[in-house]
Structure formats: structure tokens, C-alpha cells
Design goal:
Order of helices and strands: HHHHEHHEHEEHEHE
Shape: elongated
Structural class: alpha/beta
Helix content: 25-40%
């Protein structure tokens, strides 16, 4: 048989318990408590790195269950180790621009609708090769060149500006350029591409390409999350 439990309270303590019970049983208590808890959790996630981890995890798990539909007819031509060996190029040294010109002329002959050259053509090299590459650029139906992102290093200022392709390449491309830049998360995984958010002060490589391909990217500020299709993707890869 359970023994009864007696709780002896002073009058002031009794009044506090009664007031607390009245408060917690009110019809507005639970909604208010839920709202307060939501605000507190939001502030904790906002002010700490824990929130970023949850956002990244929610992004990563999309690809565990999502399908991989076929995209537009995209061919990615890689300057990979096989290409370096075949053409006797050296890592860390400028790629032979005569090879780029040959490739672009082949793409022009085959009628490629749009070509994105993800190479930084910042400085002139040998004049004959540069002229051949510029001529091949002018043959394309539509060509987009990559620009770099240069960060401001002034001790009291923070900012960035684009490093554009040099001449004669920029003019040959019809000034179609965009910044190719990424910023990995702390786990070294790239989930979003610049600008953060879009649109930025100047175009990204993907935004310029989308516009020239017939897309209509809007100007509403938003994060740009990458869509991964797996290691071999939904496009053709060539060395």
C-alpha cells in the first residue's frame, strides 16, 4: 500500500504554486512557449556552426534519394593526366595554346552551339599561338571565357574584383565572360557557387552561360546550390 505524501508550504509559496498552475493552464501558454522555444533554437543555430552543419546535411541527403535526370547535351572535355601525358604538357606550366586553338576549330567545324572555356587567359604567351587561339575563338557560334576572382587585401577593407581575360581573347569572345570561383565549406565540400547570394556585382561563369543558352536567370537574391549528378554525371566526359 502506497503511503501518502504530504507537502507543507508556506502561504507565500502556496500562492506561487497556484499562480504558476494558473499560468501554465492558460490557453495562450503553450503557443507562447512554443514560439519562445523556436526563437531560442533559431538563435542558437544562427550564432553557432551547428546550424551550418544541419543545413549542409539536409543538402547532402537530397542526393541519396533523388533521381539523376539527363541534362542538355553537354560534353565536358578534361585537361586530365591522360591529356597531359599524350600532349607532353607539364603540370604547373602554361598549356600549349596551339592545342586549344585546334580543339576550338574542331568544335566550330562540328557546329557546337555554345563553348565554355574554363581557362584563365590572363597573360599573353607566344604571339603566334595567341593569334591562332583568338581566331579560333572568333569562329565559335557562342563562346564564354572564365574570369578570375581577386580579393582585396587592404588591411581595413574587404572586397573583390574580377580579373578579366586579356586581349585579344576578350574581344574575340564578344566580351562574354563570367567569374569561375568557389568557396568550399569547412569539410572541404563545395555545395554552392559564387556569388553568395546571387546575383552578384558582376556575372558568374554559370550565369553568363545560362543567359547565352537561352535561360532567364532572375535578379532576386538567392543562394545557388550545386546539383551533383554523381561521379560520371549526366553528360559525356572526354579527355
Amino acid at each position: 500500500m502506497a503511503l501518502p505524501i504530504f507537502l507543507i508550504l508556506k502561504p507565500s509559496e502556496f500562492n506561487s504554486v497556484v499562480n504558476l498552475k494558473t499560468l501554465t493552464e492558460g490557453k495562450h501558454f503553450r503557443p507562447a512557449a512554443g514560439a519562445a522555444l523556436t526563437v531560442i533554437c533559431g538563435l542558437v543555430l544562427w550564432k553557432s556552426s551547428l546550424g551550418d552543419a544541419w543545413v549542409n546535411t539536409s543538402y547532402d541527403y537530397l542526393f541519396r534519394f533523388g533521381s539523376h535526370p539527363v541534362t542538355n547535351k553537354v560534353v565536358v572535355i578534361l585537361m586530365d593526366n591522360e591529356a597531359y601525358d599524350h600532349f607532353h604538357q607539364t603540370r604547373g606550366q602554361p598549356w600549349d595554346r596551339a592545342l586549344d586553338a585546334r580543339l576550338l576549330n574542331r568544335l566550330a567545324d562540328d557546329g557546337s552551339s555554345i563553348v565554355v572555356l574554363d581557362l584563365f587567359l590572363w597573360q599573353p604567351h607566344r604571339q603566334a599561338e595567341d593569334e591562332a587561339l583568338a581566331a579560333a575563338l572568333r569562329r565559335q557560334r557562342c563562346i564564354v571565357l572564365a574570369a578570375g576572382q581577386a580579393e582585396v587585401t587592404h588591411p581595413t577593407l574587404a572586397g573583390a574584383h574580377p580579373t578579366l581575360p586579356s586581349e585579344p581573347f576578350l574581344s574575340a569572345a564578344g566580351t562574354n565572360w563570367g567569374v569561375a570561383w568557389l568557396d568550399p565549406d569547412l569539410d572541404s565540400i563545395v555545395r554552392r557557387h559564387w556569388p553568395f547570394p546571387a546575383p552578384g556585382p558582376y556575372p558568374s561563369l554559370s550565369r553568363t552561360t545560362a543567359r547565352l543558352a537561352g535561360g532567364q536567370p532572375d535578379d532576386d537574391p538567392r543562394e545557388q546550390w550545386l546539383r551533383y549528378y554523381g561521379r560520371y554525371g549526366a553528360w559525356t566526359r572526354l579527355s
